[in-house]
Design goal:
The chain is of the alpha/beta class. It folds into two domains: about 110 residues, Rossmann fold; about 120 residues, Rossmann fold (3-Layer(aba) Sandwich). It contains nine helices and eight strands. Helix 7 packs parallel to helix 8. It is globular, with a radius of gyration of 18 Å.
Length: about 240
């Protein structure tokens, strides 16, 4: 059997473009390597603070993300994702910039899941900030003509303090009340389904929400999906030469 070289490191099939943050990332979060049953490779996009992605989208960050994706591809990853669902706005450009598959946001699952539901009811989205989720994010993920039920963490103080108020002049070694974040997410999920009972499933936009996915499912009584479920699906189909790379 013959295999090929060309890289310094091997086996890190999934590359993850990270925002420039230092808040806690517990197992289940995309930024915690213990989340995955396979090896991943991280690359931080310097200066990509939540304030420049979620609060006021900064188009000048597109090129640094493209550069990061190309660097991950050069290092040998077989697919690329990101640590923020709002990077859906860059999905098309990132996918066009490299030869490996790119899935910038968990929201890419919505058209597929809605089809599985026979095109009935509504697709639920639990987002980090409802006020920031706009047409550019939905269009980037091919979400057109699908009725949506939305709920956000806009009024959830602990979640917002930890994950959204981190910035260039703040953050550092932030504490996080895990139980309080869980309670806030479950409350938002229950509110979503209470306001839109026809919701068939819920997609968690934010890559910090997956540690609480099972709690959210139980709270709202609907199937829930996130960036980790998508990463597992994409990884399951990646080609590795003779299973060695």
């Amino acid at each position: 059997m013959i295999t090929r070289g060309g890289f310094t490191n091997y086996g890190e099939d999934l590359g993850i473009l990270m925002l420039d943050t230092s808040f806690p990332r517990i197992p289940g979060d995309i930024g915690n390597a213990k989340t995955f049953p396979f090896a991943v490779r991280y690359l931080t996009v310097k200066g990509a603070f939540p304030s420049r992605i979620v609060w006021e989208p900064d188009p000048t960050l597109l090129q640094p993300f493209i550069d990061g994706a190309r660097e991950l591809e050069r290092l040998g990853v077989k697919a690329i994702t990101t640590s923020c669902g709002f990077l859906a706005m860059f999905q098309r450009e990132l996918a066009a910039a490299v030869e490996v598959p790119v899935f910038a946001s968990s929201l890419l699952q919505i058209p597929f899941l809605y089809g599985l539901c026979g095109g009935r009811g509504k697709a639920g989205i639990l987002t980090a900030r409802k006020a920031s989720l706009g047409a550019a994010h939905l269009e980037g993920c091919g979400i057109r003509g699908i009725p949506l039920a939305l709920s956000g963490m806009d009024a959830s103080p602990e979640f917002t303090r930890v994950f959204l108020h981190w910035g260039e002049n703040g953050g550092g070694d932030l504490p996080m009340d895990i139980d309080l974040v869980r309670a806030e997410l479950c409350a938002a999920a229950r509110e979503l389904v209470a306001e839109d009972p026809d919701t068939r499933f819920v997609v968690l936009e934010c890559a910090n929400m997956p540690p609480f996915r099972h709690d959210i499912q139980e709270a709202c009584g609907r199937p829930a999906y996130d960036i980790v479920t998508l990463a597992d699906y994409v990884h399951s189909g990646l080609f590795t030469e003779a299973g060695l790379s």
